[in-house]
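Researcher: Please predict.
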Amino acid sequence: MKQFTTTAAAVLGALVVIAAVAVAADEAAPTPLFRVEQEMIDLGDVTAGSEAVAVFRFHNAGDADVHIIRAKPS
């Protein structure tokens, strides 16, 4: 019975170590973090036929590449 208890404790300990390593590896994975300085810009009243210009500044605050697949106005 003592050998079974020791083996069970060793297996349980190994599972705990494996789970801890998996969690630590997941937390350390590089991730992109897309940041927009100002999400909305009020252009005020724009006369029909005139041109309105706005600049949106954004950057990647993460440690992995950001991939912009599609961008369109709303």
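Model: Residues 2-60 form one domain.
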